[in-house]
Design brief:
Number of domains of chain B: 2
Radius of gyration of chain A: 19 Å
Strand order of the largest sheet of chain A: 3-2-4-5-7-6-12
Bound molecules: thiamine diphosphate, magnesium ion
Order of helices and strands of chain B: HHEHHEHEHEEEHEHEHHHH
Protein name (chains A, C): Alpha-ketoacid dehydrogenase subunit beta
CATH class of the largest domain in chain A: Alpha Beta
Organism (chains A, C): Ureibacillus endophyticus
CATH architecture of the largest domain in chain B: 3-Layer(aba) Sandwich
Keywords (chains A, C): Oxidoreductase, Thiamine pyrophosphate
CATH architecture of the largest domain in chain A: 3-Layer(aba) Sandwich
Oligomer: heterotetramer
Number of strands of chain B: 8
Low-confidence stretches of chain A: none
Structural class of chain A: alpha/beta
CATH topology of the largest domain in chain A: Rossmann fold
Order of helices and strands of chain A: EHEHEHEHHEHEHEEEEHEEHEHEHH
Strand content of chain B: 5-15%
Strand content of chain A: 15-25%
GO molecular function (chains A, C): oxidoreductase activity
Low-confidence stretches of chain B: none
Cofactor (chains A, C): thiamine diphosphate
Shape of chain A: globular
Mean pLDDT of chain A: 98
Chain lengths: 325, 360, 325, 360
């Protein structure tokens, strides 16, 4: 097996599917000749040509809108949005076309589209390059949202997303692009959308996160072990639909939970998870669920981003709050 | 800045039904003229019927197209079987002409999701509601045809107001950059609800906006079905031959309200609309038929009757539709429902059964 | 005092402020000569002229973007978006300009902008005219969201919104526009943004809603009284920031709660409220919090909208579920 | 469709520094030329310094403008004190010329929110990052000036890539419909990161996009600061006089990478950039000064030294800034923080104090 970084695994996933099916196309700003501003599409235009790996105009509504039109017409576009903070010009296209076409035609047309978007803070990028706004998409009916934290999952989920008959927003952590590395099978395999994974077994408390927060959770869990607190760690991987069962099963065992995400507290996915726990596990909970999230403030200019992002220390504090409630 | 002179309004048949471009003489066959006429009276009858159905509360809000039939029928008739159509909420004359089913269109306005379903084997996308957002889609659908190497083309309808939206621009630019086989068919009826075109844009024509994309722009009399048909044919031909998109501005007029929910007396003098009947697209073909010896009272009466029957039948079918299926609320969001949707559906159906048992 | 419908109260609020301050402008599609497609701005252009009540091109990003530019330059624009379902083309402008300009300039520029948007289902409108997507805005830092359910609150909150130094999204229930009527003072007064109100005192359970859901809650409460269940009803009025205290105070008394909204369950404000209760009132809760919301599906074509919208019956079921937990 | 001939590229001074439009002879005063030159060397020195600071890790990613100084300085010099400027991330030469503070600009790229604050009494909006989204804002700011009845105008910068965005179109259309006093100043440097203009648009010029809005469009040599200055002055004059917006396309070139994070060898031959130095905007003024007797070695040396000192001083100031204030994360979201933000701030400051006490 090859050992790849997260971004290499993503490239490999696209290459695998470009080889597998002629209907697969890659399009976006700078994805062709330049191979993407992060090099996620490096080498793809050379291998598959300009008709399959397409440099588009600087036009997010154009990219998503035309991808929807292609997807309705039998193709399987993978559209790159250069940074999640620049997806909003395409919001209308996602909101009223990509996600509604199947319903509006009772399935006569569907939109098997993948939207790839690098997200998140922590790499000292200029302002507005660091948004983590998954919640603005999980509230839209008709689109799935995934966010891998390992190279293996990244490739497997990307392949599932490409094969999914409906739109999938595929969020890629900028911070993890080159900072995680792992074994990735050659060729085609898939990781099921909608399933979380337990990264660590534990008894006392459940830590829930995804994407760039996973290393933060792992560090916090190590700290907690020193204080003899045993943490169970769940990596959600899919943000819509959230894997309810893995959450319920875990919190029913531990009775305590800390949820961690970069996005703002209000309207963040943490609240969806609390709601799932309320629905499934009310009687099991021994303490209020703790959230460690970005504040209700803009992701700041980078000089302050470390103060915005959840840290192992803050997670540790939340763990203790839940444990010593 | 006097671009309007670069885009003079083209006509083939004048308002009195006389051919003014002799070149077209041979191309205008009897069959073509009669087909124009048949479609025109069919869609006009449909439109008036639908408006009445709304008045009677048998369907919901409806967007009338009376006055715009020439633009819609003429352009739709230029399409080939496998082409794609992206209509708006006002373009039922186009979609009917292209082969949409009348009961389906009525169902759309009756708030039935069945109303969005295209007819079998015909690529008619459901009416676009968010203004101008269909242009990038149409560009993409056309790019896919090009990618697949077919000769199919796409027609995309939109109004004068739509040209102010960013998506108009992005769709035009994409299509021009990728030489997508798409015809952008604008119906300039001078109003976006209450807003007259002079407040919508500073340019005197819409055709001149083609300059921004370096694609052909054509300004035509949208009430002259002849010029509409032939110019759309040409544009489609260019598209099929790999020469990319065309912007057609068909100048026309809606006689009535924006929709049945609108009161046009608030913003314009309805007398003007009456005066516009002088340029009516249906009457013009009538005059043409009379001028050139195609008119046959009996045939016309016969056609009118056929149309009447067909439309009455459509209303019957629409009203005979089984009542809406609650499952449709949940079943078409994803190919396979997520657990959230499945749970919500189960809970709701249980609730409904509970209610049903309570009430009985 | 005058007795006005909700929409008349809104018109009155705008008129009051147009008279009060020259900086106040109204702009949007069809707001001038036509007086708005719902007549919310009826008569305003006649009274204040075309330079203050402006018919704009059909261009939501243009409307919001230019309003931001005006607001930064000393004016107080009230921008109308014709239906909430058509706000998405302006999403980028709201997301990265309206809401961020104060932060990005440390207050050197601010954006005192009001965005009015009719929302919600239930009036047999054509598809995509019935969205209730407040959650897509409450998750944005830098904008407040309000949603009145009475004519008094409508005018008072609108005036507060106009005077607020920051952007406010003002959601107007289509369904309530002409179906509620009430006493409205002449001239200027205000209702504080951020404060909910108790519409009914009760003992056994707290019902929380806003906007078009208030009559639904009231009917359900009447049904519940018949079964000797005493409901306390809270009208949130402001959706960001949510009035935490009024919620906590009430659920700490009742120990039970039903939250009702039109929007989709996942990512809906119901989850934010559950999260507030989790944070403030964990030990008080006697039963899982119940939500009665739209499903995770598109607001349907209107033939099915009654099956989408929360009804008094569904609320009643939720009340019983919470009571007999 | 051959619009490019309607928009020929205008020049006043050719690449060898010779005046080619004699009409301007009297308008080109010694003072003007020396001011051009002083600004040009100032901003070029700043730009190179900033790039080096990034290399040394003393600031973050930085967007260089070398090659585009003529377009930026010339246009900014045409502004009056109370005008507004909407720059992008690449337009520091413009904002510096208009009076922005150098340490503030460096702070911006150091990830400091202080970098977004305009200088006192000067209307300089923070650099626009989401491409083209500033155009509608600029239109609105200009509409407000018009509403207030001032003679102030707005200049709005954007690149060739920006023209593909819907917001470009909506901003242009708003400004043209409302005759807003704004100059849309496009720097066509032929690239949007890696994407060459031929893939960005089908039109040969950007100036011709003015046709869509029926406003004046001007195509100029953006490396000829003379034509930039005089054409921007004219456009501002039109704006102030109530004649509405102008679209200026200044054709230029960036020599270097898109930003310090970009590797241009992936997508273009860097030799071409070196060849472009023949058209350099700074050298051109140098040549002009030499050709027409304005060159004075001593004055030039003196200016270079002053600029060097000023910039070194700015770096010192930037680096002497107190470390970022954590409160700034919370304090500028609303005029008054909501309870959510206040609670989050309190909790975070408590956390920080806890950490501080733990670590000591
Ligand atoms: C994005 C968006 N904004 C607003 C509306 C509301 N609206 C419906 S039709 C219309 C006017 C459209 O005018 P035009 O494009 O000229 O088409 P016409 O109705 O004249 O056929 C408006 C503003 C909408 N449907 N979508
Ligand atoms: C909406 C949006 N999409 C994408 C980006 C990423 N991006 C930053 S600069 C740039 C290219 C801009 O090109 P151009 O407008 O020509 O300006 P230039 O950089 O050449 O000055 C892109 C794609 C962005 N900042 N905003
Ligand atoms: Mg129109
Ligand atoms: Mg450029």
């Amino acid at each position: 097996m090859q050992s790849l970084t997260l971004i290499q695994a993503i490239t490999d996933g696209m290459r695998t599917m470009l080889r597998e099916r002629d209907e697969v196309l890659v399009l976006g700003e700078d994805v062709g000749k330049n191979g993407g501003v992060f090099r996620a599409t490096d080498g793809l235009q050379e291998e598959f040509g300009e008709s399959r790996v397409i440099d588009t105009p600087l036009s997010e509504a154009g990219i998503i809108g035309s991808s929807v039109g292609m997807a309705m017409n039998g193709l399987l576009p993978i559209a790159e949005i250069q940074f999640m903070g620049f997806i909003y010009p395409a919001y209308e296209q996602i909101m009223t076309h990509a996600t509604r076409m199947r319903y509006r035609t009772m399935g006569a047309y569907s939109v098997p589209l993948v939207i790839r978007a690098p997200y998140g803070a922590g790499v000292r990028a200029p302002e507005i390059h660091s948004d983590s706004t998954e919640a603005l998409f999980t509230h839209m009916p008709g689109i799935k949202v995934v966010c891998p934290s390992t190279p293996y999952d990244a490739k497997g989920l990307l392949i599932s997303a490409i094969e999914d008959p409906d739109p999938v927003l595929f969020m890629e952590s900028l911070r993890l692009y080159r900072s995680v590395r792992g074994e990735v099978p050659e060729g085609k395999y898939s990781v099921e959308i909608g399933k979380g994974v337990k990264r660590k077994e534990g008894e006392d408390i459940t830590l829930i996160g995804w994407g760039a927060m996973m290393p933060v959770l792992e560090k916090a869990a190590m700290e907690a072990e020193k204080k003899l607190i045993s943490c169970e760690i769940i990596d959600l991987r899919t943000l819509y639909p959230i894997d309810k069962d893995i959450i319920a099963e875990s919190v029913q065992k531990t009775g305590r939970c800390v949820i961690v995400h970069e996005a703002h507290a209000t309207g963040g996915l943490g609240n969806d998870i609390i709601s799932i726990i309320n629905d499934t596990s009310f009687l099991y909970m021994k303490a209020p669920i703790q959230r460690v999230t970005g504040a209700d403030v803009h992701v700041p200019f980078f000089a302050l981003e470390d103060h915005y992002l959840p840290t192992p220390d803050r997670v540790m504090e939340a763990i203790e709050k839940a444990i010593y409630f | 800045m006097g671009y309007e002179k670069d885009f003079p309004m083209q006509q083939i048949v004048d308002k009195d039904g006389f051919l003014i471009l002799e070149d077209y003489k041979d191309k205008i066959t009897r069959d073509l003229v009669l087909t124009f006429y048949r479609h025109l009276i069919r869609v006009r009858t449909f439109d008036r019927k639908a408006k009445n159905l709304q008045r009677q509360g048998r369907i919901g809000t409806y967007a009338m197209f009376e006055g715009q039939e020439g633009a819609q029928v003429g352009s739709a008739m230029a399409l080939k079987e496998n082409d794609w159509m992206y209509p708006t909420y006002r373009d039922h004359a186009a979609s009917i002409t292209f082969g949409h089913s009348l009961p389906t269109i009525l169902a759309y306005w009756k708030g039935r999701v069945e109303g969005g379903v295209p007819p079998k084997g015909k690529h008619i996308v459901p009416p676009s509601v968010p203004i101008a957002t269909q242009l990038p889609l149409a560009a993409g659908t056309a790019m896919a045809e090009k990618y697949k190497g077919t000769n199919n083309a796409v027609i995309c309808y939109f109004g004068d107001g739509a040209t102010s939206e960013g998506d108009f621009h992005e769709g035009m630019n994409f299509a021009s950059v990728f030489k997508a086989p798409v015809v952008f068919f604008n119906q300039n009826n001078s109003y976006a609800i209450s807003v007259p075109i002079e407040k919508q844009m500073n340019s005197k024509t819409i055709a001149q906006k083609s300059a921004a994309y370096a694609i052909p722009g054509v300004r035509i009399d949208g009430n002259d079905i002849f010029v509409v048909y032939f110019e759309t044919l040409k544009a489609l031909e260019r598209a099929r031959n790999g020469h990319g998109p065309t912007l057609i501005e068909a100048v026309t007029w809606r006689y009535g309200a924006h929709t049945t929910a609108d009161d046009p007396t608030k913003y314009r003098n309805q007398e003007e609309s009456e005066k516009r009947r002088e340029f009516d697209p249906v009457t013009r073909v009538e005059k043409f038929m009379k001028n050139y010896g195609y008119w046959d009272d009996e045939w016309v009466e016969n056609q009118k009757q056929l149309v009447e029957e067909e439309i009455n039948q459509a209303v019957i079918e629409m009203e005979a539709m089984p009542s809406p299926n609650v499952s449709d609320l949940f079943d078409h969001i994803f190919a396979e429902p997520t657990w959230t949707i499945q749970e919500q559906k189960n809970a709701y159906l249980t609730h409904l059964r509970g209610e049903a048992s309570c009430n009985h």
